[in-house]
């Protein structure tokens, strides 16, 4: 008798412990979003993945996803899209142009497909200025959820949503987005020697004013999205707080 009682106490304690341990939830398979892993899982993006790695943009995108809560939108051309480029197109680009080409497919904000309906064109990409002749990108939508992207050189259609979370949206596109700055017909350089020597400061300041204007108008709708994203984050935090 004197041995059985302690045994029962210990056994009950053991059962309590194991049930408590079993009830604690397994840690989430966390870790920051990895664009390479997202594309590998989706398949048919080997050329884009190679380009992302060669330009170091994969690391840069992953770092951005880990460090900021602003979000990114990526247009991902399929292997077929790259294959339908004129042969030698990628090889003819300089390293810097390859980086710009990849950056042109990345928007520094998270856009849902429904948000595309209200964006104001041209959109700013990570390639930089959206002024005419540089890196403008227009998104147009139609009633039946079709989303087109025009660059001034070509027009691609969003075929599919590959991935989306609170920070990143990846959309499959049927064509490589070709920026005007790299693939546009080169405008003749307006460099009249006399004007440059007569009025050295006036001409450059005028042209930089116009680029500033387009840059600002392009940035305005993005600010709305930041505000929307922040309010959404607060709403989520409030919801979580209520549940606790
Ligand atoms: C991202 O995923 C790729 C492919 O799965 C892997 O090779 C790479 O190491 C991952 N990078 C990080 C930072 O986890
Ligand atoms: C993500 O960011 C955290 C905090 O800044 C850092 O400790 C961690 O090493 C980063 N992870 C990766 C994979 O970059
Ligand atoms: C998108 O592009 C396709 C093919 O170029 C065209 O038929 C369609 O009308 C366009 N839709 C929108 C919303 O621009
Ligand atoms: C993009 O949109 C802007 C503003 O609506 C327009 O001026 C420009 O011509 C458009 N470019 C293309 C290639 O559709």
TrEMBL record:
- FAS1 domain residues: 32-177
Looking up PROSITE patterns in the UniProt record yields:
FAS1
The record's section on SMART domains has:
FAS1
Which keywords does the record carry? Cell membrane, Glycoprotein, GPI-anchor, Lipoprotein, Membrane, Proteoglycan, Signal
Primary location class: membrane
Q: Annotated region Disordered: where?
A: 194-217
What subcellular locations does the record give? Cell membrane
An individual GO BP term: plant-type secondary cell wall biogenesis
Q: Name one GO cellular component term.
A: side of membrane
Quote the Pfam families the UniProt record gives. Answer: Fasciclin
Membrane-related topology note: Lipid-anchor; GPI-anchor
Extent of the signal sequence = 1-22
Q: Which family does it belong to?
A: Belongs to the fasciclin-like AGP family.
Query: What does the UniProt function comment say about this protein?
Result: May be a cell surface adhesion protein.
This chain belongs to the protein called Fasciclin-like AGP 11
- What organism is the protein native to? Tripterygium wilfordii
Q: What is the lineage of its organism?
A: Eukaryota, Viridiplantae, Streptophyta, Embryophyta, Tracheophyta
């Amino acid at each position: 008798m004197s041995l059985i009682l302690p045994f029962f106490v210990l056994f009950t304690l053991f059962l309590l412990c194991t049930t408590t341990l079993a009830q604690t939830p397994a840690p989430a398979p966390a870790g920051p979003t990895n664009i390479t892993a997202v594309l590998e899982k989706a398949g048919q993006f080997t050329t884009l993945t190679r380009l992302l790695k060669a330009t170091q943009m994969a690391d840069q995108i992953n770092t951005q996803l880990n460090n900021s809560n602003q979000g990114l939108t990526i247009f991902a051309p399929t292997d077929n899209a790259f294959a339908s480029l004129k042969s030698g197109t990628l090889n003819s680009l300089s390293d810097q142009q390859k980086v710009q080409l990849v950056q042109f497919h990345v928007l520094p904000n998270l856009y849902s497909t429904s948000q595309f309906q209200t964006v104001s064109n041209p959109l700013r990409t990570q390639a930089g200025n959206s002024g005419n002749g540089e890196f403008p990108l227009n998104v147009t939508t139609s009633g039946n959820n079709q989303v087109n992207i025009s660059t001034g050189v070509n027009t691609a259609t969003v075929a599919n949503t590959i991935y989306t979370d609170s920070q990143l949206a990846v959309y499959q596109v049927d064509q490589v987005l070709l920026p005007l700055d790299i693939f546009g017909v080169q405008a003749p350089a307006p460099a009249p020697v006399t004007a440059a020597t007569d009025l050295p400061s006036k001409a450059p300041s005028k042209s930089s004013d116009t680029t500033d204007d387009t840059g600002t108008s392009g940035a305005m709708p993005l600010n709305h999205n930041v505000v929307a994203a922040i309010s959404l984050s607060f709403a989520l935090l409030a919801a979580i707080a209520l549940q606790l």
